[in-house]
Amino acid sequence: MNLKNMINRLFFGIAAFGFLLTGCASNKQENISRLSLIQERDELICGVSGKIPGFSFIERDGNFKGLDVDICKAFAASIIGDSEKIQFRPLTAAERFLAIKTGDIDLLSRNTTFTLSRDSSGGNGLTFAPVVFHDGQGLMVKKESGIDSIQGLANKSICVGSGTTTEQNINDTFESLSLPYIPIKYQDLNQVVAGYLQGRCQAMTSDRSQLAAARSGFKNAKDHIILDDVLSKEPLAPASDGSEQKLADAMRWTVFALIAAEEQGITQSNIDDKVQLAKNNPQLKSLRRFLGIDGGLGEKIGLRNDFVVKVIKATGNYGEIYDRNLGKNSDVPIPRGLNEIYSKGGLHISPPFN
Amino acid sequence: MNNLNSNLNTNLFKKLKRFLLSKSKYNFLNFICFVISISLTFNFLTWIFKSNWKVVTSNLNLYAFGSFPINEQWRPLFWFFILLSITLITIYGPKWNWLRKNLLFGWIGTVPLGIYLLNGGFGLDTVMTRNWGGLTLTILITSCSILFSLPIGILLALCRRSSIFLIQKLSSFYIDVMRAVPLIAVLFFGQLLIPLFLPVGIEIDRVWRAIIAFTLFVSAYIAEDIRGGLQSIPKNQIEAAKSLGLNKFQINIFILIPQALRVALPAITNQLIGLFQNTSLMSILGLMELLGVSRSILANPEFIGQYIEVYIWLASVYWLFCTTMALVSKKLEQKMTINKGF
After folding, report:
1. CB nearest to B301's CB, from A103, A194, A213
2. Which of A179, A186, A209, A354 is the most exposed place for a label (fewest CB within 10 A)?
3. Which residue in chain A is spatially nearest to B292 when comparing CA positions?
């Protein structure tokens, strides 16, 4: 009896201590917003994949490179004022949302598809910034297989990455067409590619951009075709914790600034001239507001007034980021298509900076 | 030499002849296996010579140091050099008495030295842990975890044999729970849940969180190894010590633990080798250790699809290190033994 008492007391003590700790945690969280926490820390912790060609991968000199990485740099430039003050954290698809929820990372820039259940507080409880890359799921097959449409894949095995919307989409599509197929699941895209190349499956599925990226590294790229069928729309967007409104605002307008800069022809190389131009000409009202000379727009969302200048100086506008990582002359060329700005027939548009 | 060679050849030839001409019913089967294994080896060797090893050779820096700043890479390199020299001293070194006594302390000393060299401070530039990576990080996590889990393991083992009921039950409970939980769950807990319990603003670095998680896990296993060592010591030694007037503390420190450690050393080496390989699990949790950095290199558009080369390279690196560790522990075992006949 005595022993039971003792153990009971002990467990009660441990539980109370745990509650105390969590209590501390939740109390303090209300006081400090994530945005000011980042500014105080003077460093942005950015979750990336680290394993997707063209979006985030490690270069020979040990630095991260890619579109997702450049978006992170833009966030760091706008929030902290220095695009180098970033800590990149490579994450797998399965753990990325938990990492945001636990506060281990500040924001996610990791090929994440914007969906209702991820945005909702009943789901993953995230908030998404504007879409930075419009993608769609596709299928890649070997040319010699003679398969030219999704119907030809009946009863064939398909390599797919697990824990992603990709897995769900392929299942939905094949079920709605009542086609049987054999899914072969892998943990990440590179393993899917390896499985496909080793002939474990007749087709592989992923976002079309990733298929193109993977194919560009194949020895005989021309022997593989990407089918015309597009299984889904995959708007890829950066995300942050849904309860951090200020951070979400800052991220939203940083992405819009990248797009608006391309709309107005402001680039990394001419940004200084544009600032001078705006300073000298008081009649250029909208440009002055955009570059933070008038209006104090930046302060309204908890940033510096000239955050747009910092961002463009660090990374260039959206078009420059795209060309650097996915353009014609890059290692992973992907046609811009839907990712053009609206005036050139694409989907990217920025609301006015007023 | 020639003589030896020809001797060896004729021996081999004789053996082969006997092997092929023996009238066992498995003869044919044996022959098939022989041919298959020869052809597999041949294919493998030709593949090794034919394939392009640029993905390995041009990224050696990344494999070794991750994204450690290039100007500072002499620091981990220097640490490697120290480790290599102490390894060589252990395996081939002279059998001086003072060396034998101090070798273990030398090994223990390499860990704080490594942390100092990597982290900086006191005259060196500070390098953030997020820049640690590659083989350096793998070795650091392994050595720190084993160094921390040894004293904890000893303590747990002693507690488990304690006569105080609560202490004994508590340490048994801890050991049994840790042994019943898979390592990956402990690591997930360390990486993702520890920050949830900590108040905002207090952050334990993720490398240290990994080391803490590994330490928690491995110390339970080491405790059991050491308990095995403790149980192998005959009771009359304790009685003899008591009759000499030693107190409990002295008995533990001077009599039980040194002998138990000597007995448990092979088992602890086992844990060490297992730990070294288990650090690769951290790549799933986003640390850029040897496997993690390799997976990121594979995403470089220049090297897409060269998995086999990279994984064979990794396998040989892991093999080399694990074999070295086994050798070193064997030598340590020999050098630590005093008067084997006793």
Report:
1. A213
2. A354
3. A90
Q: Which domains are delineated in chain A?
A: 32-132+237-266+314-354 (3.40.190.10), 136-233 (3.40.190.10)
Question: For A151-154, which contacts have Cβ atoms below 8 Å and span 24 or more sequence positions?
Answer: A151/A177, A151/A179, A153/A179, A153/A181, A153/A202, A153/A203, A154/A179, A154/A180, A154/A181
Establish how many alpha carbons lie within 13 A of residue B76's alpha carbon, considering only the half-sphere containing its beta carbon: 27
Q: What is the mean pLDDT of chain A?
A: 86
- Between A7-21, A216-230, B31-45, the lowest mean confidence (pLDDT) is in A7-21
Q: Give the E-state strand segments of A129-277 in sequence order.
A: 133-142, 157-161, 182-186, 203-207, 224-226, 232-236, 239-241
Which residues in chain B are contacts of A101 at CB distance < 8 A?
196
State mean pLDDT over A70-80: 95
Based on the fold, state whether residues B141 and B249 are members of the same structural domain: yes
Nearest to B70 among A61, A87, A101 (CB): A61
CA distance B206 to chain A (A): 9
Q: DSSP character for B285?
A: T
**Partner-chain contact A57 B195, CB within 8 Å:** no
What's the pLDDT score for residue B329?
85
Write out chain A residues lying below 8 Å of B285, CB-based.
92, 95
Question: For residue A56, what is the DSSP state?
Answer: B
Verdict on whether the full-model pTM lies above 0.80: no
The answer to whether B101 and A99 are in contact (CB under 8 A) is no
Residue of A255 and B198 predicted with greater confidence:
A255
Query: What value of ipTM does the predicted structure carry?
Result: 0.71
> For residues A217 and A348, which has the higher predicted lDDT (pLDDT)?
A348
How many domains does one find in chain B?
Answer: 2
What range defines the domain where residue B21 resides? 2-44
Is residue B33 in a domain? yes
Tell whether B165 and B295 lie within a shared domain. Answer: yes
Q: What letter does residue B199 receive in the DSSP assignment?
A: P
- Residue of B66, B195, B304 lying closest to A104 (CB–CB): B195
- Picking from B196, B292, B307, the nearest residue to A194 by CB comes out as B307
Instruction: Look at A103 and B196 and tell me if their CB atoms are within 8 Å.
Output: yes
Q: Which of residues 274-293 of A touch B (CB under 8 A)?
A: none
pLDDT of residue A29: 47
Question: Is B195 close to A103, i.e. CB distance below 8 A?
Answer: yes
Query: What's CA B313's distance to the chain center, in Å?
Result: 18
User: How many CA within 13 A on the CB side of residue A20?
Assistant: 6
Count Cβ atoms below 10 Å from residue B308 Cβ, excluding itself: 12
Contact A331 B303 (CB under 8 A): no
Q: What distance in Å separates residue A191's CA from the closest CA in chain B?
A: 9
Instruction: Kindly give, in sequence order, each residue whose CB lies less than 8 Å from that of residue A105, ignoring residues fewer than 6 positions away.
Output: A45, A46, A47, A89, A91, A99
Question: Which of B196, B200, B297 faces A58 most closely, judged by CB atoms?
Answer: B297
Distance between CA B249 and CA B216 in Å, rounded?
A: 25
